[in-house]
């Protein structure tokens, strides 16, 4: 397959928090990969900005170490690394002070794309936005990239949107949800909207239910006190899982255009029913496998924050009335696995009397660990023995088509940063989308806060709390295995 890397325009990208965890693990190694791929050309520059004093060379050394740690050995090339590092600079800036900003302004070049990645605590977003403008660092075409969490409820998200809007137009604001940058998530849109096969079946009449799972094996050990202020609903459901739900449930946009896509996603969020407390199961992992439980890790024995949540969600519109969406996510589960599974209904009539082995058609969209798509279909079991049915996966993943080149597919952060430079907002959340998602989330959280109910304990390494199984069983359904 021919490589289709299209170089992006020349840019100056400033990474606030350029020495932080996210920058070192994802953003900078990702940019190196785009440089090697030829997408970032050698006249572009990356400027790390953080509070500490650091020379350009010290910053380059830090980035070289990140590349060493986070880019696989067979993807590293010493000459390329040296060339890439020469594109890096550093400026010491305190987001809350005035020092360093004029130096940054003087570094900016005219006639190139200016992008500013806010890879710092959200409390600093407003300060940075303000000073980028007051010191004349950002021009009217500049783009800003903001990380999650975008608020912790509707009021804080609105306040943050209002603050950013004082300094930047909505078309300049790129709110990251890295799930949207995943190859498979975009493939989901291609499968839905570039084929005639699926769309006629994509509705309550033919879809029995949808399961969205984001399972993690990691605990919150080491960042428990921080996690305890959010919990699984805020950390995963309100943003990442909501975005996945939107892409499955939305109507076809009239065009693959940022606002057309985001208008349709917004309509889905607005169509979500409030979720009654009996359709929600929350859990906290227990000690096990030589590790402490959630209550120890979050350093708060009385915590009622959930490390697991499962909920049944209804999209109240013409297309989806009667098809539940089951969402679940949690820490310390059996496996690290994220997938969307769309389970279709039974054929209206079976012509096979003794059709043992019949199972529903399921379209499985796997986001991690191995991205791909499978459509589970029924075929005749080959060979003699009469008409016996068996279920086989129809592999619809890109990895098989691309072979070795699958390795060169940009990861979510890489793709999204390149989209920022291209000025394409399709895969970024718009302000009204984020607010609508919080407007749906807030009453759910208030609901359980009002009851003071404690989350149910679940075994480390399990599939979650018992009650989550019941949530499905009582509807005559079952969760797919987490593996
Ligand atoms: P971090 O604490 O590792 O790094 C923070 C960075 O901000 C450091 O470079 C620090 O020097 C800089 N900084 C702190 N105070 C500053 C100030 N007053 N002025 C200028 N710079 C200052 O944090 P992180 O884990 O890299 O997270 C950064 C952002 O990304 C946060 O909003 C976080 O919620 C978000 N995020 C992180 C991850 C992740 O995997 N780390 C994942 C998703 C989202």
Automatic annotation (TrEMBL):
<keyword id="KW-0313">Glucose metabolism</keyword>
<feature type="binding site">
    <location>
        <position position="216"/>
    </location>
    <ligand>
        <name>substrate</name>
    </ligand>
</feature>
<feature type="binding site">
    <location>
        <position position="182"/>
    </location>
    <ligand>
        <name>substrate</name>
    </ligand>
</feature>
<feature type="domain" description="Glucose-6-phosphate dehydrogenase NAD-binding">
    <location>
        <begin position="14"/>
        <end position="187"/>
    </location>
</feature>
<dbReference type="GO" id="GO:0006006">
    <property type="term" value="P:glucose metabolic process"/>
</dbReference>
<feature type="binding site">
    <location>
        <position position="178"/>
    </location>
    <ligand>
        <name>substrate</name>
    </ligand>
</feature>
<dbReference type="GO" id="GO:0050661">
    <property type="term" value="F:NADP binding"/>
</dbReference>
<comment type="function">
    <text>Catalyzes the oxidation of glucose 6-phosphate to 6-phosphogluconolactone.</text>
</comment>
<dbReference type="GO" id="GO:0005829">
    <property type="term" value="C:cytosol"/>
</dbReference>
<dbReference type="Pfam" id="PF02781">
    <property type="entry name" value="G6PD_C"/>
</dbReference>
<keyword id="KW-0521">NADP</keyword>
<feature type="domain" description="Glucose-6-phosphate dehydrogenase C-terminal">
    <location>
        <begin position="189"/>
        <end position="480"/>
    </location>
</feature>
<feature type="active site" description="Proton acceptor">
    <location>
        <position position="240"/>
    </location>
</feature>
<dbReference type="GO" id="GO:0004345">
    <property type="term" value="F:glucose-6-phosphate dehydrogenase activity"/>
</dbReference>
<feature type="binding site">
    <location>
        <position position="331"/>
    </location>
    <ligand>
        <name>substrate</name>
    </ligand>
</feature>
<dbReference type="InterPro" id="IPR036291">
    <property type="entry name" value="NAD(P)-bd_dom_sf"/>
</dbReference>
<keyword id="KW-0119">Carbohydrate metabolism</keyword>
<comment type="similarity">
    <text>Belongs to the glucose-6-phosphate dehydrogenase family.</text>
</comment>
<keyword id="KW-0560">Oxidoreductase</keyword>
<dbReference type="InterPro" id="IPR022675">
    <property type="entry name" value="G6P_DH_C"/>
</dbReference>
<dbReference type="InterPro" id="IPR001282">
    <property type="entry name" value="G6P_DH"/>
</dbReference>
<feature type="binding site">
    <location>
        <position position="148"/>
    </location>
    <ligand>
        <name>NADP(+)</name>
    </ligand>
</feature>
<feature type="binding site">
    <location>
        <position position="235"/>
    </location>
    <ligand>
        <name>substrate</name>
    </ligand>
</feature>
<dbReference type="GO" id="GO:0009051">
    <property type="term" value="P:pentose-phosphate shunt, oxidative branch"/>
</dbReference>
<protein>
    <recommendedName>
        <fullName>Glucose-6-phosphate 1-dehydrogenase</fullName>
        <ecNumber>1.1.1.49</ecNumber>
    </recommendedName>
</protein>
<comment type="pathway">
    <text>Carbohydrate degradation; pentose phosphate pathway; D-ribulose 5-phosphate from D-glucose 6-phosphate (oxidative stage): step 1/3.</text>
</comment>
<dbReference type="InterPro" id="IPR019796">
    <property type="entry name" value="G6P_DH_AS"/>
</dbReference>
<dbReference type="Pfam" id="PF00479">
    <property type="entry name" value="G6PD_N"/>
</dbReference>
<dbReference type="InterPro" id="IPR022674">
    <property type="entry name" value="G6P_DH_NAD-bd"/>
</dbReference>
<feature type="binding site">
    <location>
        <position position="51"/>
    </location>
    <ligand>
        <name>NADP(+)</name>
    </ligand>
</feature>
<feature type="binding site">
    <location>
        <begin position="17"/>
        <end position="24"/>
    </location>
    <ligand>
        <name>NADP(+)</name>
    </ligand>
</feature>
């Amino acid at each position: 397959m021919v490589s289709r890397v299209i170089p992006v325009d020349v840019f100056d990208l400033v990474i606030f928090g350029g020495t932080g965890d996210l920058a070192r693990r994802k953003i900078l190694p990702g940019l190196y990969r785009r440089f090697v791929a030829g997408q970032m050309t050698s006249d572009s520059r990356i400027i790390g900005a953080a509070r500490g004093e650091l020379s350009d060379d010290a910053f380059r050394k830090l980035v070289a170490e990140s590349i060493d740690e986070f880019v696989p050995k067979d993807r590293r090339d010493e000459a390329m690394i040296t060339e890439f590092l020469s594109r890096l600079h550093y400026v010491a800036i305190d987001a809350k002070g005035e020092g360093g900003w004029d130096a940054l302004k003087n570094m900016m070049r005219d006639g190139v794309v200016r992008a500013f990645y806010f890879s710092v605590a959200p409390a600093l977003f407003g300060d940075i936005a303000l000073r980028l403008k007051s010191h004349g660092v950002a021009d009217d075409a500049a783009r800003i990239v903001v990380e999650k969490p975008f608020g912790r409820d509707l009021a804080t998200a609105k306040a943050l949107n209002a603050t950013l809007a004082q300094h930047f137009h909505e078309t300049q604001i790129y709110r990251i949800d890295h799930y949207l940058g995943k190859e498979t998530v975009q493939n989901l849109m291609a499968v839905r909207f570039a084929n005639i096969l699926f769309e006629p079946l994509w509705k309550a009449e033919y879809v029995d239910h949808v399961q969205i799972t984001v399972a993690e094996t990691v605990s919150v050990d080491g960042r428990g006190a921080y996690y305890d202020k959010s919990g699984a609903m805020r950390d995963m459901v309100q943003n990442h899982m909501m975005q996945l739900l939107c892409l499955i449930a939305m109507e076809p946009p009239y065009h693959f255009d940022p606002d057309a896509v985001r208008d349709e996603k917004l309509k889905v969020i607005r169509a979500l029913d409030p979720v009654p407390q009996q359709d929600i199961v929350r859990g906290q992992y227990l000690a096990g496998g030589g590790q402490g439980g959630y209550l120890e890790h979050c350093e708060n024995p009385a915590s009622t924050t959930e490390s697991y949540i499962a909920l049944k969600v209804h999209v109240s519109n013409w297309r989806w009335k009667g098809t539940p969406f089951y969402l679940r996510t949690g820490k310390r589960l059996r496996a690290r696995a994220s997938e969307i599974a769309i389970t279709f209904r039974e054929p209206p009539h079976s012509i096979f009397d003794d059709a043992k082995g019949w199972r529903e058609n399921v379209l499985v969209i796997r986001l991690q660990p191995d991205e791909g798509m499978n459509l589970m279909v029924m075929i005749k079991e080959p060979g003699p023995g009469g008409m016996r049915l068996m279920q086989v996966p129809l592999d619809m993943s890109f990895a098989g088509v691309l072979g070795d080149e699958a390795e060169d597919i940009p990861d979510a952060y890489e793709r999204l940063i390149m989209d920022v430079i291209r000025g394409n907002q399709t895969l970024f959340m718009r302000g009204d989308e984020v607010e609508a998602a919080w407007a749906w989330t807030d009453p759910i959280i208030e609901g359980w806060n009002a009851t003071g109910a404690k989350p149910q304990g679940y075994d480390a390494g399990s599939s979650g709390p018992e009650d989550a199984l019941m949530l499905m069983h009582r509807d005559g359904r079952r969760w797919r295995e987490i593996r």
